[in-house]
Structure formats: structure tokens, C-alpha cells
Amino acid sequence: MRTITAYSNPLVKQVRDLRDKRHRRESGRFLAEGLRILIEAREGGRLPVLVFLAEASAAHPLVRTLIAEVEAAGGEAIATTPDILAKLSGKDNPQAVVGVFDAWDTPLDALDRTASDIWLVAERLRDPGNLGTILRTGDAVGAGGLILIGECVDPFSVEAVRASMGALFTVPVVRSEWAPFLAWLRGGPGQLVGLSLDGGDYRAAQYAAPTFLLTGNEAQGMPADYAAACDLLVKMPMLGKADSLNAAVATAVMAYEVLGRT
Q1: What's the CATH fold of domain 108-259?
Q2: 192-234 pLDDT, tens per residue?
Q3: What is the 3-class SS of the chain, one letter each residue?
Q4: Mean per-residue pLDDT of the chain
Q5: Which residues of the chain form CATH 3.40.1280.10?
Q6: What superfamily does domain 2-102 belong to in CATH?
Q7: What is this structure's pTM?
């Protein structure tokens, strides 16, 4: 196993630059931190092409297994220092293992809408924490996938991957514009349910599988024409002074409501 201890090493700079969206796009790679997330990726059929680890963690049984599988697949494991791991992850208290993965794109046509009764759709989602949390919800309810509409935050950003706690590797993610998504949706069965302040009580609605839950932009909600295209608009009663829930929270509440009634 190679050891890197110098900040000036070119590979350290290349991996550190993956925190930037432009470098992720140009290289086609992204970062994931922590043994738990890397094991989730492995169980989901994806191995990192590079693994950086603190020398002290090399004796961990799961780390040894991961290293062996990465090397067998043609990847490389690199021992390094906690300071360099902090530089790679951008955190003062970095995880003991950091992986570099090849990114992927899943086209709409690759989705099997009959694979699940619940699908999540997010429009112009801007916060990586919300995206990661929605992915975790998708994993928890057995959603068929998450479809990102328009200019959403990058699902392969360090923050989104971290917030997903490994769900990025278990829940298919598709990026699309509105028109092709709507054309694909109307090409088969599927009820489009929009979360909107103009909707009816979510507890009184009738849901039909497969249900596609559409969450709009955190600040602006969904455009009027998107709302008009929905089969159903619903909202959650707000009994306090707040006029809306966080986008990820609202998605989770709706997903569990649909899970119990489809």
C-alpha cells in the first residue's frame, strides 16, 4: 500500500479539488467520507477507485476487506495522515477513510416505474443537506428513486453525499428538465402529487400507486405551471406561526403518509 504524507503531492491536490463542482464535472469523480458510507456503497455494488485511509485504521476488518476488494477491482488504497485526510474532506475532524468514486448518470428511460409504489421528485432543490436527507427518506420508505428537476444542487457534492449517509448508493438519482420528465411520466401509470400551500389536506387525499411526490424549491415553491400539471395538490396543516415545513421534512411526512395508503 502506497503512503502519501506530503501536502504537495499532485494526487492530494486532485482529490481535494473534487470538493469543487467544476472539477467533479471535468473528472467524472466525487468524494465520499467514512467507512459506513463506503461499506454502503460496496453493498450497493459500487467500489471506490481510490481509498485514502489513516494508517491506524488499516487493521480494521472492514477496512481490510474494502482494501482487498478495491485492489482486486483495479483501484488503489493509500495510507496517509489525519492532516491530509482533513485537507481532502474539508473537515477539522475527518473520517478515517475517504473514497474517490466514479460518478454516474441514470437516464429516465432506465427507471422501472413498477419497481416501487413511491417515487420522489424535487424541483430546483438548492440545499445539499435537504437533498441528502431526501435520499435517506427515499431509502427508508423503499422509494424507486429521486428525480431532480432543473437546476438542483449537485447530488455528488461532498455535503450532499455526507448528508445522504450512503443512500446515494442505494436510491437511483435521475437529473432531468421538466418537459422530458412530464412526457416520460405521462407515458405510463403514475399519479403526480405536488406539495403546495394551495392544496387540500394531505390526510384526506386519495393516493394511487405509483405515486410521484413533487417537492418544489425551498424558497419559492413550485412554478404555477408545474402545479397545474399535478394530478393532486396537498398540504400539511400549519398550526403555529410558520407557514411551511422544511422541504426535506415535508417530503418525509408525505412519503410515510403515501407508504401507509397505497
Answers
A1: Alpha/beta knot (3.40.1280)
A2: 999 998 899 999 999 999 999 999 998 888 999 999 999 999 9
A3: CEECCCCCCHHHHHHHHHHCHHHHHHHCEEEEECHHHHHHHHHCCCCCCEEEEEHHHHHCHHHHHHHHHHHHCCCEEEEECHHHHHHHHCCCCCCCEEEEEECCCCCHHHCCHHHCCEEEEEECCCCHHHHHHHHHHHHHHCCCCEEEECCCCCCCCHHHHHHHCCHHHCCCEEEECHHHHHHHHCCCCCEEEEEEEEEEECCCCCCCCCEEEEECECCCECCHHHHHHCCEEEECCCCCCCCCCCHHHHHHHHHHHHHCCC
A4: 93
A5: 108-259
A6: Ribosomal protein L30/S12 (3.30.1330.30)
A7: 0.91
